[in-house]
Amino acid sequence: MVGIKFLNRQTKASQNFLKSINRVDTFKMSSYELKKEINSDIELKKAFFQAVSNSSWANYGYLVAFEFSDSLNEEMERLNQSFGIGIIELNSNPYQSKIFFPATYHDLDFKTIDKRCNMNDNFNKFIEKTEQIVTASERYVSGAEKELDDFCDDYFANDTEVEKYCKEKHMPTVQE
């Protein structure tokens, strides 16, 4: 899963100035390796190094699961310190999710982004739409943002939708 956060400034003047001098500082991109649960050291290392591999292009990389065995805390900390991949325990209520270990910032790897664009048409379209937002003049930004929003996966409008989805997909919820 890929995520992007546009770094909004307080004024249009500062937003445009930042875009003109360094477009990379107008957003941060994250990569998420999602798992239902991780119960053993072997599962942790396999998932962790998938996260390392899949996030090599991004500013931040995360390993995300609904459940981590408590016995893995020490090894998760060691891996996080060695490789900078953040670890998040996901909850069906996103406000109750926990960041066990934050990700370390890395500059974008444009060679890997280019390679992934060639390998994955959806990723290529995502990058194209991101570029349109970053380079759009002020009057076209909202239209470019709407195009990106329409392209991306749907998201849940409320907690009831989240709970329903989790039940359908047999994902743990707060009530369980």
Kindly describe this structure:
- This protein has 7 helices and 5 strands, in the order βαβαβαββαααα.
- With 176 residues, the protein is an alpha/beta fold.
- It has one domain (2-168).
- It has a 5-stranded mixed β-sheet, covered by helices on one side.
- The chain is globular, with a radius of gyration of 18 Å.
- The two termini are 26 Å apart.
Net shape = globular
Strand-and-helix sequence, N→C? EHEHEHEEHHHH
User: How many structural domains?
Assistant: 1
Structural class comes to alpha/beta
The number of strands is 5
- Rg (CA only): 18 Å
Portion in beta strands: 15-25%
Question: What's the total helix number?
Answer: 7
CA-CA gap between termini? 26 Å
**Uncertain spans:** none
Secondary structure: helix percent = 40-55%
Fill in the keyword field for this structure.
46% helix; 7 helices; five-stranded mixed beta sheet; 176 residues; alpha/beta; globular; 5 strands
